[in-house]
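Standup notes
- HV: blocked on the assembly model, inputs below
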Amino acid sequence: MAVQDYIRKRFFPHIWCAGCGHGTVLNALLRSVEALGLSKDELVMVSGIGCSARISGYVDFHTLHTLHGRALAFATGVKMGRPDLKIICPLGDGDALAIGGNHFIHAARRNIDVTTIVLNNQIYGMTGGQFSPLSGCDVNATTAPYANIDPAFDTVNLATASGATFVARTTTFHVHELEKYLTRAIAHRGFSVVEVLSQCPTHFGRRNNQSDAVEMLDHFRQQTVARGAKRSRERPDLMQRGIFVEEERPEYCEQYDALVAKASAAGNGTNNGGAAS
Amino acid sequence: MGERTLFVQGNEACARGALYAGLEFFAGYPITPSSEIAELLAEEMPPAGGKFIQMEDEISSLAAVIGASLTGLKSMTATSGPGYSLMQEALGYAIMAEVPCVIVDVMRGGPSTGLPTQGSQSDVNQIRWGTHGDHAIIGITASSHQSLFENTVYAFNVAETYRTPVVVLFDELLAHMRERLELPEPGDLPRVERLRTQLPQGVDYHPYLAREDGRLPMADFGSGHRFNVTGLYHDMWGFPSTDPQTVHDLAHHLNDKIEHRTPEITRNKSFNLEGAETIIISYGLPVRSAMQVMKDSRWYGSTLGILELETIWPFPRKLVKEACADARAVVVVEMNMGQIHQQVRDAVDDPARVFLCNRVDGQFITPRDIRSFLRIVEGQGV
C-alpha cells in the first residue's frame, strides 16, 4: 500500500503552521507503518490534546482523539479490549509528561504494548507558547518572560526508569533515523517510547533566537550526537540520539491472559449472575 | 435457602448485577466505601474471561473504561465522591463522544475527604452538574439489594440504548448493609446488547448519524469500519467541526436524547399515593425508613403515600407534579441539604407545601426522625 493510502485526504490541509516539525513525524510514521505492512484495520491511534494530537485526524486508522494528557489511559482500555490491535499514541511534551506524566510512568511500568511518540517541541504550541516540562531552564516562553527556571525532564531517563522496554530519541532533522526507530518501536512487543525533537518556529523559535524552521533543524543537527559515536564522548554536552533500551519483558496483556488461565484452572468465580463462590 | 439466595453487602449486589448485565471490562481505583465492588470483580471476572484492571487513579479508570467500550466491551468503573469528582473530565468525554459505560458512585459525606465511612446522599447534584458544559445525564439509585441488582442491570441497558454514560448512585449504608439477595435466573431480566451497524465493510459508515428511532448503531474498533472519535464538537463522521448548524444540532441531540425521553427512562415506585394527604418523596435507603413509618400507621393520623424515585436524573418533573397535585404536604426525605427537595419545589404547583426532612450528620435517617418531622408538618407538635 502506498503511503498516501494511509491518510484521510479529505481532511487536509492540516492545521499545523508552516515549518512545523509534526508533519515530518507523520510522514516518517506512515513510512514505518508501510514498511511493516500493517493494515489500516489493525491500527488504532490514540492521541491527547494539542498540536501533536491532531495527527490522529489525518490517518485513516481507528482514531481516538481524547483528553489532554489521558491518551495512554484510553489506550490501555483499547489495548486490553483488543490486544490484537496495534496502538500508537502521538503525544506532545506537555501532554505526555506534565498533565499526562502519571499515565506515562504507569503505562511504562505495566509494559503494555503501546507505541508512544513524544513530539517534543519544548513548548505548548496550541495555547500560544507557554513553557512545558521539557522546555528546560533559560528558555523564553509567554509564561516565562524572564526566562524559565523550571528544569526539564529527560524523557529517555524517565521512560527507562519507569520500565519502558524500548526507548529511543531522535529529531525531525534525522528523518531516516526517525523512520527506523518508529518501525522498531511499533514492531516491539511492550511499551515503546520514541522521543522526537520537533521544531516549533512559531512559538519556540520566535522567542528563542531561532527564527525559522531551517535554523531550528540545523540546531538539531549541531546540538545532538549519535549515541556511541566518538563525538559523543568528546562532547558530553550534546544531546544523544539513538536506541537506549531494547529489551524483552512480559507484556501486560500477555500477563493478563496468563492470569485468566490461572484463575480458570483454579476454578474460582462463578458465571454471570451465578451463586456466590 | 437455595444457592441463588445470598446474604450480601449492597456493593456485592451491585457487582453481581453488573455481571448479570454482561460486564466485560472493569477499571477502577481503590476508594472507600466502594472498594468491595472492585474486589469482587477482580475475583469473578478473570475466570469468566472478563478484563479487570486497577488503574493509577480515577481519571485513568474512566478513560480506560471508555477505550474498552469502544472495542465493544460492556464496561464499568466504581468509585465514591472524591473519585467521582476526578472523573468529571472523562465523563464529559463519554457524553460528547456518546460512548456507553456505567459509573458507580457509592456516596459518602463530603465535600472533600469528608466522611469516608459514613452514609450520605450529597453527590446527587454532582451527578447531574459535575461535568462542564450543557449536558444531560442519567442517574439511577435503589433502596434495597434486590432493586440495586435490578437497577444496575437496567443502567447497562439504558447506557447501550442511548449510547451514554449512566451513573448508579447509592449511599455507604446500602453499600455495606447486608441483606437477602435473590439472584435472578439468566433471562429473567431483560438485557440490552450493543447495537452494531449492519453496514458492510467499505460502505461509508456514519458513527454519529442517528437512525429514525434516535439510536446510533456503533462499530467496534477493529471491526472494519474506521472512524474518528473526539471530545470536540463533531460531524456525523466524528470529525471536529465548528460549523454553527452542526454544533447547534449536536448540542440539542445530546440533551434531547435523554431529557425528551424522561418518561421512558424513569423508574419509580409508588405506595398508597391515591388520595394521600401527605406524600413522602424519597430515594435510596431512606425509603426504607419512610416505608416503616407508613406501615406503622398508628403513629400517624392522616393518609400517607410514598413516591420512591429510582431514576433521579433526568428528574421526572411531570411525574412529581402530577403525583403531588392534590397533596396537602409533600415531604422530601433525603440525606443531604435538600438537593432533590429543590427539584421537587421546582416541579410542583405550590412549592410552599414542600418540606425537607433530612440528616447531614453521617447518621441514617430513622423512622423516628421522619415521624417527628411529620408531626411538626401536621401541626401536632414534636
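- HV (later): unblocked. Chain B has two domains: 5-182, 269-377. The first helix of chain B runs from residue 10 to 21.
- Next: hand off to the docking folks.
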